[in-house]
Amino acid sequence: xxxxxxxxxxxxxxxxxxGVDRAVQIVELSxxxxxxxxxxxxxxxxxxxxxxxxxxxxxxxxxxxxxVPPGAPVIxxxxxxxxxxxxxxxxxxxxxxDATCPLVSKVHREAERHHxxxxxxxxxxxxxxxxxxxxxxxxxxxAVVLVETVDDVATVMVADPGNLxxxxxxxxxVDDTAAIVAALQARFPKIAGPRREDICYxxxxxxxxxxxxxxxxxxxxxxxxxNSSNSKRLVEVAARAxxxxxxxxxxxxxxxxxxxGSPRTLGITAGxxxxxxxxxxxxxxxxxxxxxxxEEVTVTSEDVHFKLPRALEGA
Length: 315
Known about the structure:
Blueprint: E1 5-12, H1 18-34, E2 38-41, H2 48-57, E3 59-62, E4 73-76, H3 84-91, E5 95-98, H4 102-116, E6 120-124, H5 130-136, E7 144-147, H6 150-155, E8 164-168, H7 174-187, H8 201-214, E9 219-223, H9 229-240, E10 246-249, H10 257-260, E11 265-270, H11 276-289, E12 291-298
Parallel strand pairs: 1-11, 1-12, 2-3, 2-4, 4-5, 6-7, 6-8, 9-10, 9-11
Helix pairs in contact: 8-9
């Protein structure tokens, strides 16, 4: 019995970004340099496949530093941490490495500059996300206020409406953030912005790639974790761009084939912390049920690379 045809549109760019690749390398090279176990505070990136692979290699993931033995090496996740965390690591005499994405660190430095100039920061982001916690933790309590939606802008309380700056989480919806920024500028005309866009290149590119294929797809799968901000935004972008059924899955085993229906054209992308092996796994699962034709749709190319910490040179 012949299988029905399926055109798979592969959005590109997709998957690992430079910040995620750097963070994973930091854990791998730390294991080579120090030997197992190496401790990691929180998930290094939001992807269970990646985390479980590092666990098998000898990484131990912990919630807080008091779970790390004295003198042991510990790595801070790619999302960034409050300043209190490395200070605590120093007090505990821990050997620590910072895997914070350099583009998140850029937001931290901008917030510090604005604070030094006497401005209060309005941070656009999702409450409770590690990146938001890390960014707010760069400055004293009250120096940063959080808004999540356009509606929040109307009610946010600030100390001095004429002396503000805004910053954003790096993994937000480009369109949603533009609307929030416009609302902030309308209410606070003197608000200062970042020198360069805070939403990172990888988030922007992956959303643009999804927009390029969404209207052509009967359904679209975003491969990513349910706690991955950039992956969840891709689902939203796909739906807004005209895809009737956009679903988030962690890997092939999670696909609800009944919910997927009988698509003739299926879009596939991957969040910035999902490795390409999971994309190939999903395509292979499709090939078990359909006669698959692959088409790569590329909106731009990426050649960004970030340097590793000096402590790991030669590891």
